[in-house]
C-alpha cells in the first residue's frame, strides 16, 4: 500500500520537483526532497493542514511565495521529468523513508552550517548542502505515523 494515494501525473510533478531542488545532490538527495513532499501530504498540522495532494504541496503558497524555490524560479522544474527521477518519485510515494528526511517537513540550503532550528523546528540532519528539519515533538504526530 502506498504512503499516499497518487496518479501518474503526481509522479511526474514530484519527479520534476525532486530534480529541480536536488539534482546536484544525486539520487539520495532527490529521495530526501521526495520524503519532504510526501511528509507534507501526510502532515495534518502546522502549515500543511490543507494540503492533501502532491500538486497542493508543490504549488502551496506561503507568505506570498511558493513554498519551493524551484516553482518560483522556473529553472529545471519546468522541464520534462526523466525516467530515472520518476522511478525515485515512485519509491518515495510507495515506501522510501530515510534519515535525515524521514520525518522532515522542511529543508533548505543555508550556504553555511545548518542552524540548530528553522522557524523553531529542530534540525534532523544534513545531506550535502541541504539541512532537514522535522516538527517539534507533539506538534505534528501525523508525520510520525504516516
Describe this entry's structure for a reader.
This protein has helices spanning 8-22, 26-42, 54-58, 69-73, 83-94, 141-145; strands at residues 61-62, 65-66, 106-108, 117-118, 121-127, 130-133. With 146 residues, the chain is an alpha+beta fold. The strands form two sheets. Strands 3-6-5-4 form a four-stranded antiparallel β-sheet, with helices on one face. A two-stranded antiparallel sheet has the order 1-2. α1 crosses α2 (26-42), α1 crosses α5 (83-94) and α2 (26-42) crosses α5 (83-94). The longest helix has 17 residues, at 26-42. It starts with 7 loop residues before the first helix and ends with a helix. The mean pLDDT is 94.
Going by helix content, strand content and strand pairing, the class is alpha+beta
H-E string = HHHEEHHEEEEH
Mean pLDDT: 94
Shape verdict: globular
Percentage of residues assigned to helices:
40-55%
What oligomerization state is this entry in? single chain
InterPro entries: Cell_wall_hydrolase_SleB, SleB_dom1
Organism: Neobacillus vireti LMG 21834
GO molecular function, one term: hydrolase activity
Keywords: Hydrolase
Compact description:
It is built from six helices and six strands.
Amino acid at each position: 500500500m502506498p504512503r499516499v494515494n497518487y496518479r501518474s501525473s503526481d509522479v511526474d510533478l514530484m519527479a520534476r520537483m525532486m530534480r529541480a531542488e536536488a539534482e546536484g545532490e544525486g539520487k539520495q538527495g532527490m529521495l530526501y526532497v521526495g520524503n519532504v513532499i510526501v511528509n507534507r501530504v501526510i502532515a495534518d498540522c502546522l502549515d500543511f493542514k490543507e494540503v492533501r495532494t502532491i500538486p497542493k504541496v508543490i504549488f502551496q503558497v506561503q507568505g506570498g511565495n511558493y513554498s519551493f524555490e524551484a516553482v518560483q524560479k522556473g529553472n529545471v522544474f519546468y522541464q520534462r521529468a526523466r525516467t530515472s527521477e520518476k522511478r525515485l518519485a515512485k519509491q518515495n510515494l510507495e515506501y522510501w523513508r530515510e534519515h535525515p528526511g524521514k520525518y522532515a517537513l522542511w529543508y533548505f540550503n543555508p550556504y553555511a552550517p545548518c542552524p540548530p532550528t528553522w522557524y523553531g523546528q529542530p534540525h534532523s540532519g544534513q545531506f550535502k548542502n541541504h539541512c532537514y528539519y522535522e516538527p517539534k515533538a507533539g506538534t505534528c504526530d501525523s508525520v510520525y505515523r504516516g
